[in-house]
Amino acid sequence: MASSLRLPPDLSRTATRGTATPVAAVSATVPAPSAAAGPSGSAKWAVGGIIGGSAAAGVLAAGSSALALYFARRVITPARFRDADQEVLAVIREGRGLQVILAATPDATVDGVYGFFFDGGRGHARIGRILSYSPAERTVLREVETVYSGDISTARRGWWSGAAYPDPAAIGLSADDVLIDVEGGTAPAWLVRAVPASEDTVSDVWAIMVHGRGASRQEGLRAVRTARELGMPSLLISYRNDGLAPSASDGRYGLGSTEWRDVEAAIDFVLEQGAREVVLFGWSMGGAICLQTADLSRHRQLIRAMVLDAPVINWVNVLAHHAELNRIPSSVGRYGQLMLSHPLGRRLTGLAAPVDLKAMDWVSRAVELRTPTLIVHSVDDEYVPYGPSAELAEKNPEMVTFESFNTARHTKEWNVDPERWERQVTAWLRQQLAPRANPGDQEPAAGHSTPG
Description:
The protein is 29% helix and 22% strand. It has 452 residues and is of the alpha/beta class. Strands 7-8-10-9-11-12-13-14 form an eight-stranded mixed beta sheet, sandwiched between helices. Helix 3 packs across helix 8 (330-341) and helix 4 packs across helix 12. The protein contains twelve helices and 14 strands. It has helices spanning 11-16, 20-29, 53-76, 221-229, 260-272, 285-296, 315-325, 330-341, 346-349, 387-395, 413-416, 418-433, and strands spanning 86-94, 97-103, 114-118, 123-134, 139-149, 157-161, 176-182, 185-192, 205-210, 234-237, 277-283, 303-309, 373-378, 400-405.
C-alpha cells in the first residue's frame, strides 16, 4: 500500500469541490451523521459566518457527508501520480561512488536499503546506509549504492520505496515476460525460474508474489531469492488497476474483494506450467488479496502456505487509523466506511458493487483461516497498524505465525534487515513445505516471537 491516503491540508475546499450535488444525494440515501458528530474545533475546516442553530446543523451534516465521501473515494481510487515528498538537498561524488544529502524525513532517517524514485518515476536509485545524521540541520547523508535509471544529480525531489530493485536482472536473475489471462484482457507478469531440482528442493510448488495498493510487481523482488533457494519458481504478477494489468470496469480498488480473481488467474497459469501447489506472498493490500484468495478461490486447497508482509488484516481498523491521521472525526470516518459497504453508496463512490469490509475482518474470522500463514509486521508501521496481525496470530496459533520487526516503516521489514527477513521466511517455509500429515503442524516455538 504505497499510495498515500493523506488528505490535503484544506479539507473543506478539497472535500467539497465538485461534490455539491453528490452531498445532497448522500443525505437522501445513506444516513448522515448527526450534527453532534460534526468536525471538532481543531479540524481544518470551518463554517463561515454566523449561522443559527438548525441551519448550522444542516451545514455541518452536509460538510461531514462531503468529507466522508471524499475520504471514501480516496481509499478506492487509484492515484494517477505519486507525491514526491522527499527533498534532495545535494548529491556528492565521493571517489567512485555517490552520496546524497536528504531532508531528514521519517523514511530517510531509518537505516537500511531502499528504492528512491525521482523525475516522475523515470529515475530509480538504490539508497543504502546512513553515513551521518544532523537532527539540528534536519539532514541525513546516505550512500547511493546504484543508480538504475535517470540522473540523480539533477533530482530535487522524489519518493521513498521498499522496492529496492527495478527488475529481476538487478538481483542477478533472468526472467520471462509472460501474460496471464484475466478479466478484461491480459496482465503482464515476470516468471523467474527455479534452480534445477535437487534432493532438498521442492519444484512442484510455485511462489506467487502479490504487491500492495499503489505499488507494482517490483515489490515482490525482495522475496524472489528466498523462494528460489527453496526451489520455487516465482511469478510476480500485476492485477487490476495497478497501471499494468487491465483496469476494472469501475476503475476502483476492491481492497481485495475483487483483486483476488486475478490471483486465481495466476494460479491457473502456474498449474498449466506444471505446478501442483502454490505459496502466496503478499504485501499490504496484497496480503488482504491473498487472504481473500485463500477464502474464495476454487484453488484454495492448493495454497500450501502464505507469507504476508504488513498485511491488511482488518480494513475497518486501517480506515479508522487513516481517518485519525487526517484529523477526520471518527463518526465521519465511519460514515465513509458505510459509503463503501452500503449498496446505496455505489453511485457516489463509483464502485460497481459495495465492498464487504466485515468479510475481510480476519480478526473476527480468525478460526476460519485454515492456510498456514506467516505474518511479518513492524510494530513501527505507520500505515497499517500491526495490532490486527498480532491478534490474528493470538486467536489462531495453529495456523498463524507472527514475526514482529522494530523501526521498519510500512512494508519495509526486509529493507531494514534483509538477512533476518530471509532467514525467518526461509526457515518457516522449509517447515511448511516438508512432507507431513497435517499442513498446520508447527514447531512449539513457532507461534510468536518477541519484537526485534
